[in-house]
From TrEMBL:
Record localization: Cytoplasm, Cytoskeleton
GO biological process, one term: actin filament organization
Basic and acidic residues bias locations: 159-170
InterPro entries found in the cross-reference section: Beta-thymosin, Beta-thymosin_sf
Keywords: Cytoplasm, Cytoskeleton
GO molecular function: actin monomer binding
Annotated gene: 109541214
Source species of the chain: Dendroctonus ponderosae
Pfam families per the UniProt record, alphabetical: Thymosin
Region (Disordered): 122-141, 146-186
Family of this protein: Belongs to the thymosin beta family.
Identification of the protein by name: Thymosin beta
Cellular component, GO, one term: cytoskeleton
Length: 186
């Protein structure tokens, strides 16, 4: 169809069937309304209506819900359409290791030891006196250690910026080279 030629367009449009709207029903065919209802409808004012907030009962799923459902459906489809012929045959080897004689003997020894501990009677023990071989230091020794510790920490943490500058004077000077040479020649 060439739209640059209007006469052809009009001819093409006239050949298309356009649906026609049905005719409105006649007045006699309309249902009859009771007179008191009719007067109420005519006197109706929308300003007398109360405001009401609408609440959406059907909530659309979020993007996360849709993604989760797609993942779940893909998993179900993968399980349903799984091809078991692609699996490889394997042999199951069950390893049940029974204990040997050494393990049984060790277990019996441990069990006897536990029973001996459970049945132990502390009344059969002999009374002993405990002698302290390494007594705690007395107050004087502790004070000496504290004094030594304080002295060492004072030396380690000494602030040399608090010192005053001092000039030293030599009171017993060494002889010069000329004096030494004179003494050698004499």
């Amino acid at each position: 169809m060439d739209w640059s030629r209007p006469s052809q367009c009009i001819d093409q449009m006239s050949s298309c069937a356009v649906p026609v709207a049905p005719a409105p029903p006649a007045l006699k065919d309309l249902p009859k309304v009771a007179g008191d209802l009719k007067s109420e409808l005519e006197g109706f004012s929308s300003s007398k209506l109360k405001n009401a907030e609408t609440q959406e009962k059907i909530v659309l799923p979020s993007a996360e819900d849709v993604a989760q459902e797609k993942t779940h459906n893909a998993l179900i489809a993968g399980v349903e359409n799984f091809n078991s012929s692609s699996l490889k045959r394997t042999d199951t080897k069950e390893k049940i290791v029974l204990p040997n004689a050494q393990d049984l003997a060790a277990e019996k020894t441990e069990k006897a030891l536990i029973e001996g501990i459970a049945k132990f009677d502390p009344a059969k023990l002999k009374h002993t006196e405990t002698q302290e071989k390494n007594p705690l230091p007395d107050k004087d020794v502790i004070e000496q250690e504290k004094a030594q510790s304080n002295l060492l920490s004072g030396i380690e943490n000494f602030d040399s910026t608090k010192l005053k500058h001092a000039e030293t004077q030599e009171k017993n000077p060494l002889p010069t080279k000329e004096v030494i040479d004179q003494e050698k020649s004499a």
